[in-house]
Request: fold
Amino acid sequence: MRALIRLLRPHQYIKNGFVLLGLLFATQRDAATATHAALAFLAFCAMASAVYVLNDLLDAEADRQHPQKCRRPIASGQVRVPVAWCACVLLAGTALALGAAIGVAVPALLLTYLALNVAYSLYLKHVVILDVFVISAGFMLRILAGTVGIGIAPSQWLLLCGLMVTLFLGFAKRHAELMQLAAAGPRAGPGGACARPVLDDYSGVMLGQFIAVSAACTVLSYSLYTVSRDTIAVHGTANLIYTVPFVVYGIFRYLFLLHLRAQGNDTAHDLLTDRHLLLTAACWLAVTFGVLP
Reply:
């Protein structure tokens, strides 16, 4: 049972917090909307776990050749393949059932998310740059599920900020993987196969530029959002600007962890284990709730 739970990667559910961003910045919050947002969050948790199981099933043979991934439940034999397939189907069905309780938009977004991840696992993860954009698209689908899916009009600023920050995290992850591969040697595994073949098309200098651009765009787009006339008119306050320092510090802290602590390979783990990031996120939420009417 412990191996099965580990297979579902519940610590990654923090990423589904993107589903709740629409509710956080909504002009009207009621019990029905909050309930629908919670159901959408749970639906994406179930579908994300189904995708993790599916990825491990498809990558089981390659994972067995990897010095770290060989310890994954399926690759190590702790979870049998038929059990994993049953879990995958059950989780996907649960996700669609939860989404259907809200309306037709959320199940459609969930199926799009599933199809996108299948395409990613089979081919798109090998296409340089596009691989990170596909990861970012998965987060954008979460944002849409928490806005369009539950009847909240998505802000263009919210979509832009979401795109920029997820590209930043995606390129940071590739940079962390590249550094990890360099530390272990140019090739990983007894067969000489690269741990992630797409890394052959990346370089540290190029990824550094991508990270710098996406980080700057994240700070700029979020800052412009807080001082936008539309934002001030919709929320009735100009005080959202006081949340900007937390966003800037969070990005700088993440860059520090990436370059000097050899982290960044698992965003969810980094956020949950770094006290600075946890405190920054808590302060950002507190100030955001405090300034919004």
User: Anything to note?
Assistant: The chain has 13 helices and no strands. The longest helix spans residues 156-184. The chain has a mean pLDDT of 89.
